[in-house]
Specification:
- With 532 residues, this protein is mainly β.
- Among the domains are: 95-228, no CATH class; 378-467, Immunoglobulin-like (Sandwich); 480-528, no CATH class.
- Strands 30, 33, 34, 38, 39 and 40 form a six-stranded mixed sheet that branches. Strands 1-28-27-26 form a four-stranded antiparallel sheet, with no helix packed on it.
- Strand 24 and strand 25 form a beta hairpin.
């Protein structure tokens, strides 16, 4: 089962349990502002709990990165520009970031790709189809490195137009989305999933060639071209698709002409549209901004001034206020989660709020991250083999409502720190990394770790570990390095001889001697290279 499937199923169970038992699902974490900043917002988060966003410092926005798995403040990723269009908009699980920045050498905005080490790569590039004539924006990046955004091209001898665009991995070339009936009809791409399907909006002809009626329609787009998404009542309704999940579900906002032309948050499941309700009925300004692989949608009920961040869980059209799902905590007066902008398959939610930190009274927006009460495991302990009396190490990485505590187990029994009945020594039984010194036959088994947070716990899958006795050099394989060690034991012969290494590891059949029968077993392991 792919990792995001198991994570999404776990998140669904969390939501169901919380709704049924009125238990908290999340802990609110206020992400500190960059030094000198007056406001900020968290815009995107990956499945490892790494958050990107922007802060306002003076007249400009600056990008930041915040890793929830380490106890350090946000990292300043540099100047973006003064406009609302300038920001860091997408991050994948490998830590590659995309965004839009003001360029120093020309008046246009440029699309950038930021490597995990912080190096910026300008991906505002030429294309063999059209010539760039203006700004470019990079809005989302998938696990393969393909990028979605918008770029301005000349579409005729006299006109330039913004086209939704797809950049190849690394941003080496850009392809505009030319799926409209009209050569110069603009479009925009806001999201892309791992299948390479984009989502956005495009000016499309809802009439005929002779009598065109141009309407901004939500769409998805793959290699076969743009496909308009259904709206509520008819093809003349406007809307935008803002996010697409790993499963191809889409969320955004759509107009309903049968409801006085009001705009409503929407979810497309399997291509069919579902109206997402607002808290207490219709609320002007409501919008669905992000969807994950379990069809969990986040957004806002109401407008920016008085609205509230909400979750529509697992395709349910009725919203849940995010504050109702959070662990009780003390916050400043006027505390409010204003807008939720993204949700990962791991269940992390980010956005902007006010009054999150105790004592904060400025009323300015600050970034927030909702950490799941049940820690999300982002690195599982691995099954392994150990040589006799070797020192195997087990490690795990998790992100959740902390502080996190760890309890390693063998065959379901909690391990204690220090000496074991087998004679081995355990170090780190209650930490993220555990080592066993002098691993013996009695130490073989299934190892897992229970990870507990401030409002929930989870257990990793088991990692089976056994002794690979022919690996005499303890390098993980049975190779030439093991042969001279075996020969040395073979020449000693008797396991009772004081010259024999401790525990007589080359006596594979445990008959008290290192002889020809052991050599046959060694050759079999040598030819296989790895222990079974």
């Amino acid at each position: 089962m792919p990792a995001f499937h198991s994570i999404a199923i776990a998140c669904s169970a969390i939501f169901a349990c919380a709704i049924a038992q009125a238990e908290p699902v999340y802990k609110v974490v206020g992400i500190p502002l960059l030094p000198g900043a007056t406001s900020g917002e968290a815009v995107a988060v990956n499945n490892k709990g790494v958050v990107i966003g922007r802060c306002r410092i003076g007249d400009n926005y600056y990008g930041f990165q915040y890793d929830a798995s380490v106890d350090v403040g946000p990292i300043n990723l540099g100047l973006l520009g003064p406009s609302e269009l300038h920001g860091l908009w997408g991050i994948n699980d490998d830590g590659w970031i995309v965004g839009t920045v003001q360029h120093e050498a020309d008046p246009f905005d440029h699309a950038v790709l930021i490597a995990p080490g912080g190096t910026r790569i300008d991906i505002t590039r030429d294309t063999t189809v059209r010539t760039p004539m203006g700004s470019a924006q990079a809005r989302a990046i998938n696990s393969l490195g393909s990028i979605a955004g918008t770029s301005t091209f000349d579409c005729s001898l006299t006109q330039s137009t913004d086209f939704g665009s797809r950049w190849s991995p690394g941003g080496f070339f850009v392809t505009p989305l030319l799926g409209s009936n009209f050569e110069c009809a603009p479009s925009a791409a806001f999201a892309i999933n791992d299948a390479g399907t984009l989502a956005g909006r495009a000016l499309m002809n809802a009439g005929t060639i002779s009598e065109p009626v141009l309407v901004d329609r939500p769409f998805t787009c793959d290699d076969d071209g743009q496909v308009p998404l259904p709206t509520f009542s008819g093809p003349l309704e406007t809307g935008s698709a803002l996010s697409i999940s790993s499963q191809g579900d889409v969320c955004g906002v759509v107009q309903d002409l049968l409801d006085s032309g009001r705009m409503h948050p929407a979810l497309w499941l399997g291509g069919a549209i579902t109206r997402l309700h607002s808290l207490g009925g219709y609320a002007d300004g409501s919008c669905a901004f992000g969807v994950n692989g379990n069809a969990d949608v986040v957004g806002r009920s109401g407008n920016e001034a008085s609205g509230e961040a909400v979750l529509w869980a697992s395709g349910n059209p009725d919203p849940l206020a995010l504050t109702s799902l959070t662990q009780p905590a003390l916050h400043a007066p006027g505390y409010r989660l204003v807008t939720a902008l993204a949700i990962s398959d791991g269940g992390f939610i980010v956005g902007r709020g006010v009054g999150i930190s105790p004592g904060e009274s400025s009323g300015n927006s600050v970034p927030f991250l909702l950490l799941p009460c049940e820690p999300v495991i982002i690195q599982h302990p691995l099954a392994q083999t150990s040589c006799l009396l070797g020192n195997p190490a087990f490690s795990v990485r998790a992100v959740g409502a902390g502080p996190l505590s760890y309890q390693w187990r063998r065959n379901g029994v909690p391990l204690e720190e220090g000496s074991q009945h087998s004679g081995a020594l355990v170090a780190g039984a209650r930490s993220r990394i555990m080592r066993i010194f002098g691993f013996n036959f009695d130490d073989a088994g299934d190892y897992d770790v229970v990870i507990s947070g401030s409002c929930g716990s989870t257990t990793t899958p088991v990692a089976n570990t056994h002794v690979c006795r022919p690996d005499l050099s303890c390098d993980g394989i049975v190779s030439d390095s093991d042969f001279p060690i075996f020969v040395g034991a073979y020449e000693i012969l008797d396991c009772a001889d004081p010259a024999m290494p401790v525990r007589c590891p080359a006596d594979f059949n445990d008959d008290g001697f290192v002889d020809d029968s052991d050599f046959v077993l060694f050759v079999q392991a040598y030819e296989a290279l790895f222990c079974p």
